[in-house]
Design brief:
alpha+beta, rod-shaped, 3 domains
Amino acid sequence: MSRPWHIWTIFSLCAAVGLAAMIWLTTMVLRLDRDTARAWQRTDDEANTRVALWRTDSALVPLIARESARPYFVYSSFYPVERAYTRMFNKLEQDVLMPSPLLTQVSPYIRLHFQIDADGVFTSPQVPEGDMRALAEPDYASGEDIQTAAAWLNELRAIVDRAALSAALPLETKKPVEVVLAPPSGRGNYENRHQQRQTPMQQAEQTQTFRNIQETQARARAFQSSNAPADNVWNETNWFTDVTEGPLTPIWNDKALLLARRVSVNGAEYVQGCWLDWSAIENWLGSGIADIFPQARFEPLLETAGDNGGRALAALPVRFEPGPSALELAAVGSPVKIFLIIAWGCVLLAALAVVILLFGTISLSERRGAFVSAVTHELRTPLTTFRLYTDLLVDGIVRDEDKKRRYLKTLHAEASRLGHLVENVLAYARLERGRAGARVESIPLSELLYQVRDRLTDRAAQAGMTLSIEPLSQPLAEVYVHAAASQVDQILFNLVDNACKYAAAADTKQIHITAERRGETLSLRVRDHGPGIPPGEVDRLFQPFHKSAREAAHSAPGVGLGLALSRRLARGMGGDLRQIQTAGDGACFELVLRSKSL
């Protein structure tokens, strides 16, 4: 019995070494796959980040360029024009006011346009006051819109410090421009007396400058109208208007994103710009890159925040945070992981198959040894009896005729027992080889019981017992069973033989066979009055060769094959054989067969 343990020890050592090697190899492959995936992920993230930055900056450039190109005088709700004409191309001799485009323009990304003068007074072209509001409200802006803009202006006034904002903005320096201002009544000529010595680029820049100084001219007219007599007529005078505009600069002020610039007109400094709606801009920019970064964020980039690895936008002081990458969101196993899972599954299945095969081989070897021992013991007893009795009869030692008949009867019984043992072993061998048994056919129950009655009665009589077959009622007599008569005979004989072996010493030496119909099945029960089956033996009853030589020596004759063979024969006919628990003494077995009525 020590050899199987050696086999298990060798197998366990080999399995442990192979498992350790597989674990090490799997760890190395997973590490390499993880590093490769991370490298590809970083490459994809960097490429997608560049695309996202390009998209966001491209979307913001038109907005910022449009605000940068606005002349400074449009930050008043209404401003005067230099010349105006009728439909008949006649010049109007009175001043004409134009509404600022900022009064009527509505942008979903700009909350408010504002202007701060040198005294810190906040104004907005969207919040006209006095006569300008009366002029604007019916045709250009509703009262609700003006009230909303006024609320934004009050909030901006509370969070923006004019001096700090002005100090944070650069100021570009431009040369003074010599221009001639026309009289405020509109009489006279508006001409440029500046020397025409500029290049074409300088002339284009000068044209923009002329357009930007209109507000200064309006202020000059207002000053002349309020201080000069009504009949005063201006002569042509040279005015030197110094207009300087700084670049439009994005800046964060107390979590408010502003686009602002410094403007100097004849020495008077103003801060002009707009208050951006950062939440709307953030949603707008996020929707533009949702296909590559669905969970991207944009965070304010303060002076101490740094550039965060080149993820700052060029148009706004904002840092781009891509969030989880596409690979992390997908959470899909790599092909290497899938391959490793399949490989491990195959290895485990192979190991399980080897374990099952090894266990089956060892179990078969143990069962074969137990079978050989039990069969040897079963053969030794009748062979000894055969040799002893035949020697006595051959040598003529026994002369008494009664003793001779008794010896011959014993020899006949032992021959029957050996024949029954050999029959069971050969039948089980045929089933193990997969050979089909006898042909299953429909047999009347009464005929089937009649065929097996004599053999079963003789076996019970040999053990000094009686066999009782319950008479069949008329419905049962007309029942046909699907079975092979020879196999049913062998099953019932095994059951009666077991009853004769184990219940021979019982007080009631009787074996009962009863029949019962249940739907499409018929049950044949074989019951004795012996000691019954111990609880620990119930699970082993239908295992082949479950008796060892020691067990066979201390129990009734047999090798533990009859019940296992009988169950396989019953299931081969479409039925079953099971042990039934009884309330009283004895053992009971039930043979179930398929049936039909006539």
